[in-house]
């Protein structure tokens, strides 16, 4: 009969501890894995560990770097090597880890500890990894920080395009999966939507949808604006709302679009807030919450912009009215001054005519113009003028014209010399 060797109490004890630990953290949200050897082979791990890294990568009995090759360039394998080599535990808070590669990669944060495992002789044989994911807390902190910064921008009246562009980039950075954000602004009549911000969408796409109508079945945004309620299209390739825009979306690499109307406090349409995805997707609660938060922030920014625009327009109208009043007053002053000049000229010319009439008793037809001011006009006296009082004088064509324009009841009286013809042919 072959004897069965007795189990090594130390090995059996370690196995029980590992089972207890696995049982203890088996249903926990804490991530637990037990690694063995200098290669950090995954000996056992709880469900939360595999859910965190992805169910498709559930494997034990292989090195951690083979399960998660992306960790090699993030310094985490080097930390495990350090703990294994020195036997000193490592504790880190909010350790950043990028899980996955390419479009499926996601950023995660963990409070983590690496504890060395030892055998009965105290030799390090492996490492226990215990972590609690803090991604949501970290994202919430970042969300609050970014949201506060946006509100400060709105309060200091930053340009609307700057606020909306910053908001779009903020959401794209905060979203756990790739998302492309677009904000469209409603025309005053609410019938069309104009480009507001979309930093990650192709320029040709933004140009094509700039000015789209609001109405039932006009994509996600046009329909959301028309209905005044969110419209969720999980697959653009099959949804009838996108019949007229399907080729455009395909060229832009867009597969899903969730649009939420941006409404003013009185219910008026301000625009739409859309989240695009490159693969068909159903929104999660966190996606919808993020949409609601920033749709409200966008409404605040747009309403503040409209108020400022209305204020600026009112101020411009007030300035224009003030400038027009100043112009009218200036013209009035100029006309009054001109009238006063004409009145003075009329009085002066009338005086000259009276003086000339008196002189005509001795010299009926003078050689030189009698209407010029001192020292007198040397031009020939060609035309005789008179007024209703019987006063008359001879003058040159220039001074006669001045008298006709400025002195009432003055007329041309020199019939014998063709005065009227001389005046008309001057």
Task: Tell me what the structure shows.
The chain has 426 residues and is of the alpha+beta class. It has three domains: 9-133, Beta-Lactamase, CATH 3.30.450.20; 139-312, GAF domain (Beta-Lactamase, 2-Layer Sandwich), CATH 3.30.450; 363-424, no CATH class. The protein is built from twelve helices and 14 strands. The chain has helices spanning 9-25, 47-53, 64-67, 76-86, 135-155, 160-174, 203-209, 219-227, 246-252, 285-360, 397-406, 419-424; strands at 31-36, 41-45, 90-99, 106-118, 124-133, 180-186, 192-197, 212-213, 231-233, 256-263, 269-277, 383-386, 392-395, 411-412. It has a six-stranded antiparallel sheet. Helix 5 packs antiparallel against helix 6 (160-174), helix 5 packs parallel to helix 10 (285-360) and helix 6 (160-174) runs antiparallel to helix 10. The protein is rod-shaped and about 150 Å long. Residues 1-7 and 23-28 have low confidence and may be disordered. This is GAF domain-containing protein. Pfam families: GAF_2 (PF13185). Residues 146-312 form the GAF domain. It comes from Micromonospora jinlongensis. InterPro entries: GAF, GAF-like_dom_sf.
What attributes characterize this protein structure?
21% strand, 426 residues, GAF domain-containing protein, rod-shaped, alpha+beta, Beta-Lactamase, GAF, five-stranded antiparallel sheet, 12 helices, GAF-like_dom_sf, disordered N terminus, 3 domains, six-stranded antiparallel sheet, single chain
């Amino acid at each position: 009969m072959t004897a069965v060797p007795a189990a090594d109490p130390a090995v059996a004890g370690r196995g029980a501890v590992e089972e207890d630990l696995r049982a203890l953290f088996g249903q926990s949200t804490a991530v637990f894995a037990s690694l063995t050897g200098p290669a950090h082979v995954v000996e056992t791990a709880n469900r939360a560990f595999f859910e965190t890294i992805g169910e498709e990568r559930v494997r034990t009995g292989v090195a951690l770097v083979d399960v998660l090759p992306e960790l090699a360039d993030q310094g985490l394998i080097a930390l495990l090597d350090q703990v294994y080599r020195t036997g000193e535990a490592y504790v880190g808070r909010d350790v950043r880890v990028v899980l996955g590669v390419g479009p499926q990669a996601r950023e995660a944060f963990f409070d983590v500890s690496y504890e060395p495992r030892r055998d009965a002789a105290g030799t390090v044989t492996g490492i226990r990894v215990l972590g609690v994911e803090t991604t949501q807390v970290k994202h919430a902190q970042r969300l609050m920080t970014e949201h506060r910064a946006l509100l400060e921008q709105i309060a200091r009246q930053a340009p609307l395009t700057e606020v909306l562009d910053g908001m779009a980039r903020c959401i794209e950075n905060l979203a756990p999966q790739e998302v492309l954000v677009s904000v469209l602004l409603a025309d005053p009549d609410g019938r069309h939507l104009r480009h507001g911000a979309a930093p990650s969408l192709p320029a040709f796409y933004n140009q094509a949808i700039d000015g789209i109508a609001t109405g039932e079945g006009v994509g996600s945004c046009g329909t959301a604006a028309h209905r005044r309620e969110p419209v969720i299209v999980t697959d653009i390739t099959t949804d009838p709302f996108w019949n007229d825009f399907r080729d455009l979306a395909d060229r832009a690499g867009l597969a899903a679009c969730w649009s939420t109307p941006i409404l003013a406090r009185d219910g008026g349409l301000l625009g739409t807030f859309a989240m695009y995805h490159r693969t068909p997707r159903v929104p999660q609660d966190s996606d919808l919450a993020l949409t609601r938060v920033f749709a409200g922030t966008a409404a605040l920014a747009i309403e503040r912009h409209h108020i400022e625009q209305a204020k600026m327009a009112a101020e411009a109208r007030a300035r224009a009215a003030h400038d027009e009043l100043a112009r009218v007053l200036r013209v009035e002053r100029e006309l009054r001054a001109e009238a006063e000049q004409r009145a003075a000229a009329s009085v002066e010319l009338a005086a000259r005519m009276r003086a000339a009439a008196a002189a005509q008793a001795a010299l009926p037809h003078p050689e030189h113009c009698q209407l010029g001011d001192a020292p007198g006009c040397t031009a020939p006296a060609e035309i005789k003028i008179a007024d209703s009082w019987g006063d008359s004088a001879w003058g040159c064509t220039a001074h006669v014209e001045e008298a006709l324009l400025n002195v009432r009841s003055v007329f041309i009286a020199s019939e014998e010399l063709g005065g009227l013809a001389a005046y008309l042919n001057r």
